[in-house]
Amino acid sequence: MKMAETNGLRQFLILLYKGFLLRKRHYIITFFEIVIPILIATIPCMILSETSTKYDEENYHSSENLADKFLWVNYSTYLPFDPFYAKPYQSSLEFVYAPNNGITEQFMNDSVEMFQRNTHYKDKISIRGMKTEKEMESYCVYELQKTHGTQLMIGTVFKDFGDKLPASLNYKIRYGSGMYGPSFYTSLKYQVNGPHTSNDYSYSAFLAWQASVEETFIQKKAIEQGKNVNYKVWMQQFPFPEHRNTKGSFSVVNIIPWVLCYGYLIFIINIVRRVIEEKSNGSKELLKMMGMTDFTYWASTFMNYFIIGFVTIFIITIVYKVPLKHSIVFLRCIDFLVLLIILSLYMASLDLLVLLIILSLYMASLILFCMLFSIFFNRTVFAVIALLLVYILSFTLLMIKLFMWDSELIYFPLSVLSKLCICLLPSGALLSSFYIISFYESSGEGVQWYNITEFSLVPDLNILMILGAMLFSCALYVFAIWYFDAVWPWQPGVPKPFYFFLTRSYWCGSKPSEGEEMKLVKNENSSEFFEEEPSGVSPGVVIRNLFKEFRTGLKTKLAVNDLSLNIYQGQITALLGHNGAGKTTTINILTGLYTPSSGTASINGLDILTETTRARRGLGVCPQHNVLYDTLTVEEHLRIYAASFCHIFLHRLLESLFRNQRSNCSKFLRKRCGFSLALKDQVSYTRLYCVLQKRRRD
Q1: What gap in Å lies between CA 543 and CA 527, rounded to an integer?
Q2: Considering the chain, what is the average pLDDT of its residues?
Q3: Closest Cα to residue 1, out of 621, 647, 615?
Q4: Which residues are the signal sequence here (predicted)?
Q5: What stretch of H or E contains 318?
Q6: Please, how many CA atoms are within 13 Å of residue 207, restricted to the half-sphere of its CB?
Q7: What is the C-alpha to C-alpha distance for residues 395 and 373, in angstroms, rounded to an integer?
Q8: What's the pTM?
Q9: Bridge-partner residues for 550, per DSSP?
Q10: Residue 294 CB contacts under 8 Å (≥ 6 apart), including other chains
Q11: Residue range 446-458, pLDDT digits in tens
Q12: The listed CATH number (3.40.50.300, 3.30.930.10, 3.40.50.11260, 3.40.830.10) that belongs to domain 521-618
């Protein structure tokens, strides 16, 4: 039974077993892949410890000192203030309104007069009317650009102002100035970096103009109805709840993306290195020749690294989340436990499962990103350098540009689509999620299942949307791996056309056409140098007008020149020729390692260009160069393939050929191992054995 005949789950488990055997051989690398991220992840604990009150000998016995590691800031309340107190600082102020008619013109003049009287604004004020809101907007944008935002412009759009004042006031205020941001962010659940004691909304001319317009309208309506209205409007900032803060100017949660990013450098380098090594030394193609599918290969590679990554993620989650009992013995004897206590208390309000899901999705997207990255390289050194540049630069630039300084002015104004596109990168999703988590933690509420849909900080982004973007990025990476691994031409194997997924043969397969193959072999060659074709025997391999050229710089070398050959079933055919005649190149074309420059070939009626995977199932190949795993023993190689074939034959072959060499062996014994793997079944072995016995007698 061949590997292709086994089910996909069995192939997956076999390849996963192979991956863990390799990890067993490279135990030092595996150790660093697990330990380094966990050790670096404790850096926030150390930072928080260094920025907190130092312990001394007598304070070890005080349970309150651990709580003092966090500064609990009391709730904040604010005194009422007069909205007219907030007046502009610019020396030039222009009011623009729409629509422009007699009622709105008089109303604007009265409102501006009230504004000047109550704010005591003595500088220049101009009033300009426009026909429509669009015209007003165009004018204001032009003036602001011309003055570089130094002039304050307030636009007012009145609704339902006709021949007389409407029954109720309906209007909009359009505020424009280079001194303030695009929004006051008054609708957010949490403010950035604690309560805003001096925000733009309270101390700009916006409130003063709003009060002027509304008081003017109230007075005019009171005069119409002959009433005397005596009142005074006061404003009061909404109180801010008790919140938790560290001593220093940073949030410890913001450090976590840094330590996770740099902690997994060794991990991601090994992913790319292992995938490219298997591709460059031919072991991946050997597995595909034995019938392995691309899906099982990539799925086993992903699971091999995800299991290790999940172990580290789970331990890191425990380190950050589970509260430990901080007794005096722990405080006096084990400083590391103190660090764990501090950070776990700091993140005690963050739901354990939410944090685990966020980090697990980050790990999945990171592994898939590395697998996709490895497709485009054939040299390990170049791939690792490029990976480090892309990974580190993308993280650092996003952190510095969007999240480190002035995030209110840079990150908040981005469209929701831009924010979600940032989350498609593993580093972008990690930064975005912990950016929001940090403010939940500062408030003391923490990220819980009930608030992952709240727009608490960023007006149009929440934790659930980030999780959805991370899931979508994983699906996008899977699609990209499937597509580019099939069509990328600069790697071993026969690339598929870019439209391969639109063809019927890819999804349903094609039926071998024996009639066409028989027609191919009947050519005009009938000279004495060509052996007469046997009758009643169908060809297993048909090669027709095969060419293969290799280009080195500006030079072109012809390796195979118009080769036509028929190899019949039940016969042994040998390719003879001097070095460089094209023997190995021909075999590599038949097995799908190389793409022919022109011509084609078929195996059991299946074209090697369009049905590469199915055609390989009829081949057993012992390559010229060793494509075995250097760290696996002969016994392990044969047992893996024996399990793949689900046949007792290879187990017996193991006993007969390698009875005394079950561990590392010489180059000659490696060739014997590769020869054994090429004998896929009992029939192949019996036929070759009979021929060799006969030749030995001759």
Answers
A1: 19
A2: 76
A3: 647
A4: none
A5: helix 294-321
A6: 20
A7: 16
A8: 0.66
A9: 557
A10: 288, 482, 485, 486, 613
A11: 778 888 888 777 7
A12: 3.40.50.300
